[in-house]
Amino acid sequence: MQKTLNQLEPQQRRDLLVLFSAGLLFWISIGVLLPTLPAYLDAIGIKQQQIGLIIGAFAIGLLATRPLVGKLVDTRGRKLVLLIGTAVVAIAPLGYLATTSIPLLVIIRAFHGISIAAFTTAYSALVVDLAPPKQRGEIIGLMSLTNPVGIAIGPAIGGYLQVAGLYREIFWISIGCGAVAWIATTQLRQPSSTLAQKLSEKIDPREIEPVPTTSIWKILTNPALGIPALVLMLIGFPFGAIHTFLPLYIQTIHIDFNPGLFYTIAAMASFSARSLIGSRSDRYGRGIFIAGSLCCYTAGIAFLATANSELSFICGAVLEGLGSGTLIPMTVALVSDRSLPQQRGQVFSTCITGLDLGIAIAAPVFGSIAPAVGYPGIFTIGTGMAASAIVVFSIWGNRSLQHSIGFCLGRDRDVYRQN
C-alpha cells in the first residue's frame, strides 16, 4: 500500500488518506450499532414485531434516496454528498436516545438509511476520480477495505459495551465517529465532475452530451442483469435477518457469546475474501466465485438455524463473511462485464437495489412471524432462500443451462459479457 501511495501526487495521496479515514470512521459509526440497537430496543420494551419494523426502516430510507443521491453526485459534486452522508450518520443516533415512540423511531431509522445511500455512492465516485487510470483497480481495492475493517471494529466495541449495559455510551461513540468523519470530509479537495465543471464555467447545460439511459424494467427483464439482481434479493433476506435478529437470538438461547464478536469474525472473513478473489476472478471467471460464495453463505445460515454453542456461531460467522465478502464484489464485477460503460451506473444501482429490497422486506416479514416460528425458524427459512439463490444462478446464470453450469464450475465463458 505504501509503495502505491508513494507513486501518487502529494495532493492525491493526502486526499485518499483523508477519504480512507472518513470511510473507516463512517463504518465504525454504523457498525457499533449493529449488535446493540436491536437489544437496546428490546431493553426499552419494544416488541419483536416492532423491532423488525424499526430496523427494516433503515433499508427503506436507503432505497428511497439512492436515485436522488446518484444524481446529486454527478450534478453537485462528490464532496457535498459525502458531507450529507456523514452528517446523517452523526445526527441519527441522537434520535434513538431522544425518543421511545415507535413511529418516531421508524422515521429516525429511515433517516439513518440515507447515510449509506449518500456516503457509499459519493465515496466510490470520488475514489475513481482520485485514482490514476493505471492504478485504479489497486487503489479501489485498497480503499474498499474501510467497510470490513470498520464493520469489524464497530461491533466489537458495541458488543463489549452492551454487556455492561452502557447503551448511552454506545450511541455517543457512534455520534462521535460520524462527527469526526464529517470534519475529515470538509478537508477533501474533489475533482469536479463533468456536469459540475460545465455549470461552474457557465456553459449551457444543453451543450453537454446526454448519457444513454436504460429503464429499470428493461434491466430487470434482461436475464444477463435481472438474474444477478434476483440472486442479491434472495440473499438480502437472510442478510437482513442476521443484522436484525441475531443479537436477540443469542440472548434467547442463553449462550455466553458476544453478538459483536459474530460481526467482527464475519468482517475479518470478508476482508480475507476481498483481498484474494479479485485477480483470480479475472483468470477463472466470475461464475465459479459467485457459485462458491452462495454455497458458503447458505452453509453459514444453516449453522445459525441449528446453533446451540459458541462454535456454531463462530462457524456461521466465518462462512457468512466469506460468502458475502466474495458475492458482493463478484456480482458488481459480473454486472460491469455485462453492461455498457455509459449505462453501468444505472445498471449497478438497480442490481444492488435487489439486495436493499431483500433487507427491507426481511426485517418486518421475519419480525411478524418470529413469535410463531422462533429465531431458529427464521434462519431455517433464510437457509432455504439462500439455497434457492444457488439454484437460480446455476440454472439461469448464463445463456443456457449448459452454459450456466459450466460458468459456475469455471469451465465456460460468460456468454453475456460485453467487454
State the helical fraction: over 70%
Radius of gyration: 21 Å
Q: Major sheet, described briefly?
A: none
Give the helix/strand class: mainly alpha
The number of helices is 17
Beta content: under 5%
Elements, N to C (H/E): HHHHHHHHHHHHHHHHH
In short:
It is built from 17 helices and no strands. The protein is mainly α and 419 residues long.
Model description:
The protein is mainly α and 419 residues long. It folds into 2 domains: 1-208, MFS general substrate transporter like domains (Growth Hormone, Chain: A, Up-down Bundle), CATH 1.20.1250.20; 211-419, Growth Hormone, Chain: A (Up-down Bundle), CATH 1.20.1250. Helix content is 80%, strand content 0%. It has helices spanning 2-6, 10-31, 37-43, 48-75, 78-98, 102-130, 136-143, 146-163, 167-186, 194-200, 216-221, 223-252, 259-284, 287-305, 310-337, 344-396, 401-408. The protein is globular.
